[in-house]
Design brief:
The protein is an alpha+beta fold and 793 residues long. Helices cover 49% and strands 17% of the residues. Strands 12-13-14-10-15-16 form a 6-stranded mixed sheet, with helices on both faces. The protein has a 5-stranded antiparallel sheet with strand order 20-19-18-17-21, with no helix packed on it. Strand 24, helix 20 and strand 25 form a beta-alpha-beta unit. The termini are far apart. 28% of the residues are buried.
């Protein structure tokens, strides 16, 4: 593929987008070298790999191939038997660890999962886990070897530490002993790898030892005392032994790695290739691109294709065909209407498809395999080469005519422009006719009316135009194949304020034939717009009708299903009731026959009758259960008062209202010793309990309502009170609660210092009406609450 077309169509910007999605330096380098291919087999293989990578990204999420570095030089050194340093061995370990992670990512989730084009690449990766584990065990970082790398290294370092400790011990004694007055500072330092002490220059002869250095001012001499010279020598010898042992360890690791040079190289190549493939998949995901269908018949069919370098929220998709009914497409229309973008879209998508990249278009879009793409787009005038705009375009055109064949795609922008319009139009027609006769797929943009007529009158040549809205003076960027376009110069000039007399004079300069042709184009455009609007309206009505039809069908299906369920349930319940009635009747007949023939006691007959009545009551209760499950009417906050008796439907318990409903309808209900927060919709008012006779004033019916129960709470709060205040309030509260026949009460006194709790409990011990009291359970108040139970009256 010629480099000029790649640059003109901005293929290098697509490469930049692709490179940014590779995660390793070698993968990025692989992306930068990508070029369109002219081998159909290679293209289809790359497209399949891109599609499989895209599927992987959707299923498993993104993957990073890490910082896979180029270790080919390292592999070559291993092949000739060289020993590697710690940094090079760590690069091998990093590659193998990344290989293991990528292999795990590509592992199939089940044996039934179908293999794809990437399976071979994933399966052929060899993580060599023992080798990477051994390297990591021995080498902690580029500067540090582990003590456990070998027993000998561990022993050497232990001896070094022992010598260092003895040196520090001796030097510390000197620092704190009689030599303290000779020292500049009481510190131990290192000079030339040996332990020293800083001695004042005037006392250097008082300290026996070897002088290694002095300060910049000369006031301090760094002396190695004779007492530790031998120990320093031992450390130096041990350090030499340590370096030799490290070299031995690295040589052993290198020898072990040298047995896997082929696998290391294969892993590196596969990791690079997978990074390259997944970069293509990531680019396809970001562009919402699809796999094109390739052919060798020269057919291009793009469905809602978008230029990949324009924001997809702003770009207007185009539909375009070339090579089936016509092989030459002439695009006309006003400037900035989208003609050049359409040319670049076709050319760039062709290059992307032949590079194994998905294209930003709807699925089932088709591309043809072209061996070359020639593009003459933009103004390429050159002062250095004395080329005008026309000359530069014509130079490109001559080159295209010499090289293009039936397997080429040729793109012209403003063919024949830059010279006399009559001669330019004639040249353009002649050039396009030559390409058309050669069967070369060609697209050209122009303003010349002669080319519109040429397209209308020549078989295999088609007009296209970029739509322009005269009301807003803005292009819509829609490409309309089969419709010639207008430059709309008069209309645009009029909208922009050019006087009408000038426009009228301009019209007179146009021949009657040309004006008639332009009027015909205007009429065709108006008819097309009207037909499109009618078509859209019909399509909308059809869609609404289909939607309503579907809704009705779904509704009917639901009704039929519910009807069948209701009938089946009713039949089953009726069968059950009839069967139970038959069983009851049969049992009753048998019992009466039995009682008539034998001397059965009346007591036994009465027992049988009671059992039968119990069964009937049980059946009746089943039918009334649902009716009782919900209150007769929805309660309102104003219907409830503190002390009202209610039934909690969800718990099937009776209780007393402790608080008024809040803004959301929640209130507290006391159910025995349980105090729970309940919504008002879960409550049902019940009749207040009544008691008869015995020490109370009675109504004529002998019953009274428990008025106390409506004002006495099941809980008293004594928080913040002194013991005396609390006892006085508790005394009156216990009397009221006992008279209200409350079974038990909660006394909230808090934890604090425990004085109030102790005073309350001492008081409860003296009350004869209290049966017992105990601390509340965990979650009900713990030590901060005491529950007292009354004696039964």
């Amino acid at each position: 593929m010629n480099k000029k077309a790649l640059k003109t169509l901005e293929f290098d910007k697509i490469i930049d987008l692709l490179t940014a999605r590779a995660t390793s330096p070698m993968g990025q380098e692989r992306c930068r070298k990508l070029l369109p291919s002219d081998s159909l087999g290679d293209i289809q293989t790359m497209q399949k790999q891109t599609a499989d990578a895209l599927s992987c990204l959707f299923k498993k999420g993104s993957i990073s191939f890490g910082s896979v570095k180029n270790i080919y030089p390292i592999i070559r050194r291993l092949e000739i038997g060289s020993s590697l340093n710690s940094s090079e061995l760590l690069q091998i370990a990093s590659l193998l660890e990344n290989t293991a992670r990528v292999k795990a990512y590509g592992r199939r989730e089940s044996d039934n999962e179908q293999a794809d084009s990437l399976t071979v690449l994933f399966d052929s990766l060899e993580p060599l886990t023992p080798l990477s584990t051994e390297i990591r065990r021995c080498i902690l970082s580029e500067e540090e070897i582990s003590d456990d790398a070998s027993p000998a290294l561990k022993s050497i370092r232990r001896n070094i530490r022992g010598c260092s400790d003895r040196i520090h011990s001796q030097l510390s004694g000197m620092l704190t002993g009689s030599m303290r007055t000779y020292l500049q500072d009481a510190v131990i330092t290192m000079r030339n790898g040996r332990y020293c002490i800083p001695v004042k220059a005037e006392y250097k002869n008082q300290v026996s030892g070897m002088i290694h250095d002095q300060s910049s001012t000369g006031s301090t001499i760094f002396v190695e005392p004779m007492a530790i010279v031998k120990l320093n020598n031992e450390i130096r010898e041990l350090e030499i032994s340590e370096a030799k042992e490290i070299d031995t360890i690295l040589a052993a690791l290198s020898a072990r790695a040298s047995g896997y040079t082929e696998l290391l190289q294969y892993n590196l190549e596969n990791m690079t290739e997978l990074d390259f493939i997944f970069a293509r998949g990531s680019l396809a995901m970001d562009m919402n691109a699809t796999e094109p269908i390739f052919n060798t018949e020269g057919i291009v069919q793009l469905r809602k294709a978008r230029h990949p370098l324009i924001d997809r929220k702003q770009v207007v998709p185009i539909d375009l065909t070339l090579g089936e009914e016509f092989d030459l497409l002439i695009i006309t229309g006003p400037n900035t209407g989208g003609k050049t973008v359409s040319l670049k879209t076709v050319g760039l998508l062709t290059l992307m498809g032949q590079s194994g990249l998905h294209i930003p278009a709807l699925d089932r879009s088709r591309l043809s395999l072209f061996t070359e793409v020639y593009a003459d787009i933009g103004d390429e005038q050159s002062i250095e080469q004395s080329l005008s705009t026309f000359s530069s375009h014509m130079t490109n055109t001559v080159s295209f005519l010499e090289k293009a064949d039936e397997h080429s795609l040729v793109l012209f922008d403003e063919l024949g422009a830059g010279t006399d319009p009559t001669e330019g139009a004639a040249l353009a027609i002649a050039i396009l006719s030559f390409l058309h006769r050669q069967g070369i797929r060609t697209m050209a943009t122009t303003h010349y009316s002669e080319l519109k007529v040429y397209a209308l009158s020549t078989p295999g040549v088609e007009n296209a135009s970029c739509e322009f809205d005269l009301e807003t003076l803005r292009p819509t960027y829609r490409l309309l194949v089969g419709v010639p376009g207008k430059s709309n110069a008069f209309a645009i000039s009029s909208k922009l304020g050019l006087p009408e007399y000038i426009i009228d004079e301009a019209r007179q300069q146009i021949s009657e034939q040309d004006e008639s042709f332009e009027d015909m184009l205007t009429s065709l455009e108006q008819n097309r717009i009207a037909l499109e609007r009618e078509k859209e309206e019909v399509a909308r009505y059809r869609q609404e009708a289909e939607s309503l039809k579907k809704q009705l069908a779904d509704k009917q299906e639901r009704l039929d299903s519910q009807k069948e369920k209701i009938l089946a349930k009713a039949n089953e319940e009726a069968r059950t009731v009839l069967q139970e009635a038959k069983d009851y009747a049969d049992q009753t007949m048998r019992d009466f026959q039995k009682f008539g023939k034998s001397n059965v006691s009346v007591k036994e007959m009465e027992k049988k009758r009671s059992d039968l009545r119990g069964k009937l009551d049980k059946t009746r209760s089943k039918n009334t259960l649902k009716a009782e499950a919900k209150p007769k009417k929805q309660l309102k906050p104003g219907d409830l008062h503190i002390g009202d008796s209610v039934k909690v439907l969800s718990m099937n318990l009776k209780g007393t209202v402790s608080t008024k409903p809040d803004s959301k309808g929640f209130l507290f209900v006391q159910m025995g010793i349980i105090r729970s927060k309940i919504h008002i919709s879960d409550l049902m008012l019940i009749d207040e309990p009544v008691i008869t006779g015995g020490g109370f004033s009675k109504s004529s019916s002998g019953k009274i309502k428990m008025a106390k129960s409506s004002t006495v709470h099941t809980e008293i709060n004594l928080l913040g009170k002194t013991v005396d205040e609390a006892i006085a309030e508790l005394d009156k509260y216990l009397d009221d609660a006992y008279l209200a026949h409350l079974p038990s009460v909660r006394i909230v006194h808090g934890k604090g210092t425990g004085a109030l709790r102790k005073g309350v409990q001492n008081y409860l011990r003296t009350q004869r009406i209290v049966e017992e009291f105990h601390q509340a359970a965990f979650g009900e108040g713990d030590a901060g609450v005491t529950i007292a139970t009354f004696r039964k009256s």
